[in-house]
Structures are given as structure tokens and as C-alpha cells.
Amino acid sequence: MARQVISGIPVSAGIAIGKAFFVNRSLRGRLPRQTVASALIGEEIERLERAFVEAETELMAIRDRIPDELQEHKHIINSHVMILKDPKILGSAKKYVNEHQLNAEWALEKAVADLEKAFSALHDTYIRERMQDVQAVVERVQSRLLGEQRDASAIEGRVIIMAHDLTPADTVVLDVNKIIAFVVAMGGKTSHTGIMARTMGIPAMVGVSELEAEVSDGDLVIIDGFKGKVIIAPDDEELATYHELQVRFDVYQRSVVKECLLPGETSDGYRVKVLANIELFEEVAVVIDNGGEGVGLYRTEYSYISRTELPNEEELVEEYTDMASILSPRRVVIRTLDLGADKFMAHFGKLEEGNPAMGLRAIRFCLTHPELFKIQLRAILRASVVGNISLMFPMISGMREVVAAKALLDEARTELRNAGIPYDPDMPIGIMIELPSAVMVAEFLAKEVDFFSIGTNDLIQYSLGIDRTNHHVSYLYQPLHPAVLRMIKQVVDAAHQEGIEVSLCGEVASDPYCVPILMGMQIDCLSMSPKAIPGIKRVIRQTSMEECKSLLRQVLECNTVSKINKLVKQTIFQRYPEELTFVTSLLDIDEGVPEHPLRPAS
Fold this sequence. Notes:
Largest sheet: 8 strands, mixed
Distance between the termini: 35 Å
Oligomer: single chain
CATH topology of the largest domain: TIM Barrel
Number of strands: 16
Low-confidence stretches: 341-347, 583-602
């Protein structure tokens, strides 16, 4: 087989070399379409009924084996079981067999097509999008009909799991000791696959559209979880190069993890809190294992967008309380709902907005739905009795939103007080600074809250006027742009002038090229992916505030990105050779690979 490279979205860093093992493939275009003789209609209906029963039995067995750390996914499997029990789909398919003498696979395909057509005609987006659950269930039944349902026990040795898609029901039955990477044709950055892989500490890629067409079972492949590449049938030179990098990365990871419980403190005694960004309860263990000093950003959206019904207050209280209790006395910053743009709840439907990134999202969405918002606010307040919870409002553009959000929070406090329900009256309240308008009025906003958190991902995007997911302009996404650095410093100075803490929770926080510059600004906290914590702590311990402040002064004198990048190359790269040499070597494997966005062209 000739060497080939296909691309996808990297969702968990690392390198894996091994053989491909498919647990499922897309059924599109592979279902047989035949008519059956009248005498065989009864037998075909029996096949259909048996496949539904087998799929239901399988799902219920999977549900019963779900480990404690994945219990929150049980509702997904329950909803799939309910779909299987619904007589409409099976009844419609049996009708096609009886009246049109279609084989079971074709009859079921027709029944689902009819249902999909009916759903698409509805104006309720929530109802229309339940088809995704129906299709997942029907694919399981069709696999039974085709006899293609693969037994996870068939895995011999350690393999790279390949799939059209992976659900919690799929992954829960896999022997994690036999898996060295995940590669999935479907999905995006927030998919379950990425979360599971990061929890396991293995590489993963999603959105690899060419996967099923180009990769076969047993193929030798390299998974580059840094650049998002699957190399099929690599040559000997590539195998040697990637094996060396794999070994170096493993050695590097082990060395930094050994030191991860040490504080993020410079050689001259300046302490920086190094926290984690998480979105699932099951990531809490990863935070602790990697030396996280707390959670600087808990994204609460997953509890809403991963289910068909809205969570109630009691469910949220339990979720927040359990997480804070396990992490106690470490601090946990809970961000209120940041829905809209690329995230939405099925209950509300996807908004038809020409530019959703600048539309009804985050705090704007919550203020438009105050009752929904207050359910979450009451839940956070009730959980605050643990004593280590802070609350944070996202995407604040000015004073009006802060005042409105705090007013609803006061209403929630009053409701709990009147009901005799305890909460922490001194729970810290903060806001995210991710819009240029908030930067410009930071000195006023600092008087209204207890802390700031700078969200650089959005701040850079909105400030430079570019969509970082648009490959036509992605080269303009420059975290070390002079304007961006000045805005960050302005926010830090405004916060410290009022005596409040300021953290930074964007991707910049985990980039060793940027951290010394942020340190020079005297940032109080850095919050990042849990796996990045050990390496960033090491960078902090290897420097001094004197060096960082000197570097910052030089950077602020530069008026272009290219000058700053040159300065970065001359100073930071030389100062942290192990961390930065490793990153650079990974980015230089193939010719034509774009330069690191922060590294100047050589």
C-alpha cells in the first residue's frame, strides 16, 4: 500500500504508532436493497424484530456496566433504549416488509427516511434534531441485521481505535489498556471522543472525513495528535522519526509530571496559581493528577447541550457540589452558561443568526432567559456552601450586563434565603474580559466584581477582526500582536489598581512562548488544559520575575508582530530549550507545515 496522509481535528495531543482496528463504519450506501418472496416475509419480519431486541439488550447491558466516572452519560443510553422501545419505527418497517416485500434492511431504511422527512417539515428545531438520536439507534439495529457488530473482545494487542463515530455506549465497553489512540470520522473539538482521550492521556483525532475510505483494518498508521494527521503506510524513515519523537514526548511528559505538585513559583519567589479549564466532572481526576491548583474555568454548557431535556436545579446542585467537594480546598470557578454561536441547546433550537459569534450568546442569552438563568444561579449558590466556589459571568461588554446579572443573582439569593436554604453570602463574583469594549472600561468593571478572567481566544478574535477557524485569514490570528498584549496589560493593571485578582484562561495561558510575557505583567493565575499544567509550571520555575519584566519592557517597545516574534526567538527560545525545542521539532516534521503562530519564520 502506498503512503498517504489524511487530516482531521486534533483533540488530544501525542503520537501513536500502531495498527488500525475499526469498531464501526458508516452504513451509508452499503445496505442491501432487495425484495423477498411472499413465503419469506414472515422470516424477514422475524429478522427485524430480533435485531431490535438484540440492540436493546446490548444497550441495557452497556448501561449496567457504565463505571462511576461516566455515570452522567447514562441518560444518553436511556434515551436510545426508549427509541428502540417506541413501536412506531419497527411498526413502519414491518409494514414495508409486509406490503412491499422489502428486505429488513431496506424496510428499516425507508421507515427512518419517512420519519426524517416528517421531522424536517416541523418548525421546531428541537424536534427535528432528535433525528440524530434516532439515526444512532437505527445504525445499531442495521449493524445487527448485517452481522457487523464487532465484539470489543476481538481486539488483540494494543490498537488504534478507528470509527465512523463513537458514543459513550461504544467507548464504555472498550478495554482501555488495549487502546493507544482514537481516530473518528465524525465529531468536533468538544466531542466525547476528545474528552475520553484526554482523560486517558492518549492521542485522538476527530472529523477525519477520509478515514473510512482510506484506512483498512490492520493498516499500520501514525497518529500525529499535534498537527492532526493520520499517516497511512509510513516509510521506514518516518517510522524512525516519529518513534524518536514519541519517546522524547513520553520522557518529557514523565519528567514534568514528576514535578507537577511543585508550585508555579519563579526563582525569585513570585507565585502564580496554575489552574485547569474543564467541562466534565470526569476531568477532575486529571486536574489533581497533573498538579492543578484548582479549576479556573468550569464550562457548564455540556450539562445542557449533551441531553434532550434541561437539567433541573437539583441535578446541577449535585454536579457542582460533588466537583467542588472533591477538589476542596482547591478553588473552582464556575462560568455561567456560554450558549449560542457554535453551542446551543436542543430545547431552544439553533438560532438563525447571520453572525452568531456576535449574536445572542453567553450572558446575552442568559439575560434573555432569566428563569433558566436563575435555576443555574440558585444551583451555584447552593453548592457554594462547600466554600471553594466562585461564580463568573462570560462575554461582558459593559456595566449594563454586570448590573443586570448581579440583580438576578440577588433575586436568586433572596429566593434561597426566604426558603431557608443555605449558601455562601461571600462567594466571589467575577467576569470574563473577552471583548475590546470590556477592556476599555476595565477600570470601572473592576469596582463591581471580585476578580477578572481574560478569555484570550475570543479577545484576540474580536480585537483583530478575524475568524481563527477560517483558513483564509487564520495567519492573522496572532496572540503576540502588540494591540493584544497592550489590552491584556491594561486589564491586569486595572484589576490590580482595584486590588482584585486577574487570571487568563485562553490558549495563550498554555503556550510557553507567551507565559514569560504574561508573568512580566504580574498575572495572578493561568488556567489551561489539565495536561498542559506540568510543563507550564516548569517554565514558571525556570525563570525569574526580573527576567520576565525585562522581556515585557522590550516586547512593549515593539510595534509589529514580526519584531516581537524575533525577540521571542532570541530570548524565550534560548531560555527554555527543552520545552520549545520539542514543540518546534514537532512542527517541522513535514515540509510545508505552517510555522507556529508565535514563532517567526526562519
